[in-house]
Amino acid sequence: MKCMSSLQVYSPSEYTHVLVICGPGNNGGDGLVAARHLHHFGYKPSICYPKRNTEPPFAGLVTQLESLSVPFLPVEDLPVQLSSDFEIIVDAIFGFSFHGNLRPPFDSLIRRMVSIKTQQRTHEIAAVVISVDIPFGWHVEEGDICGEGIEPDMLFQKWLGDALEAGVKEPHYMVLSTAGKDAKPSSRMVSLEGVNKDGFVWHTNYRSQKAREISENPHASLLFYWGPIKCQVRVEGFVEQVSDEESEQSFSSLPRDIQIRPTVSKQSTLIHGREVLHQQYKEFEEKYHDRSSIPRPKHWGGYRLIPEFFEFWQGEESQVHLKFRYYAEEIDGRRVWTIHRLVPQLAESASSL
């Protein structure tokens, strides 16, 4: 389950108490399965299951959980502020197939989860909320209208995961665009080596054109396009070099043949012929034939783009495509994202963005 993969980053020693809120459908069933896994992984789950499904698969899961002494809590016994009793909330209420208006008690439960976002923004102690399917705070048909449901880095990673599952070839490749002090843009494909809330990381030669331009103008943009799932993401932000320690770690994790390449390659310089590179590669291979460790060349390392802007585009069969942007703002010394939905180009084909 993707939900359990997300939970694994939260250690049960620090995030002990988990509340799983289950709806009456399949999402609720997934929540019950998640609660069972949580119990076996050392967490202390509690379940709120106000509209129980009595069909055999669901009833069987309830019986298993009761035999494990996992408590089932009625809505009226839950605290008004869920964060006061729980470190993690698992939202297993509704999925994307849900239609209609929210009814009690799920309307109030969702409002309580949405309020956790406000707690996070005001520096109060707040629980982590993880969704089995549709993120908390989203309109079930219109999506994240208010930008309260999901951070842009999380949405990017979800789309990247969708691209991997869809079999998109080399989904980690991205267009990196830079411009030097002359303001002339240049673009090239590079491989995304890491992404998290802190930014997007790639590796390169510090003597290359892109490195020179970044030193003159430390702002850049990234572009990802995954055709089979009709999704595009554009990211803009400030670029910094990663630490030497981080570059050393990345280099040491590379296969030896990949380690040799940046060592012998003087990227973006003139060369008399490809045979020169082949000869240098062979000589270097012979030098380290005893399998001793290859030192990282000082001119090779990583860059990190710290996002200030995200733009997400999703193609629709109707040709009325979805397009929205996240902007970073500093509020009380803390980065906060605001979202704006945009009118997309009404294209004749889904390839027009």
TrEMBL record:
Pathway: Cofactor metabolism; pyridoxal 5'-phosphate salvage; pyridoxal 5'-phosphate from pyridoxamine 5'-phosphate: step 1/1; Cofactor metabolism; pyridoxal 5'-phosphate salvage; pyridoxal 5'-phosphate from pyridoxine 5'-phosphate: step 1/1. Its cofactor is FMN. Keywords: Flavoprotein, FMN, Oxidoreductase. GO terms for biological process: pyridoxine biosynthetic process. The keyword Mitochondrion does not apply. It comes from the Eukaryota. GO terms for molecular function: FMN binding; pyridoxamine phosphate oxidase activity. Gene3D superfamilies: Electron Transport, Fmn-binding Protein, Chain A, YjeF N-terminal domain. Its EC number is 1.4.3.5. Signal peptide: none annotated. Residues 1-154 form the YjeF N-terminal domain. PANTHER family: PYRIDOXINE-5'-PHOSPHATE OXIDASE, PYRIDOXINE-5-PHOSPHATE OXIDASE. This is pyridoxal 5'-phosphate synthase. It comes from Solanum tuberosum.
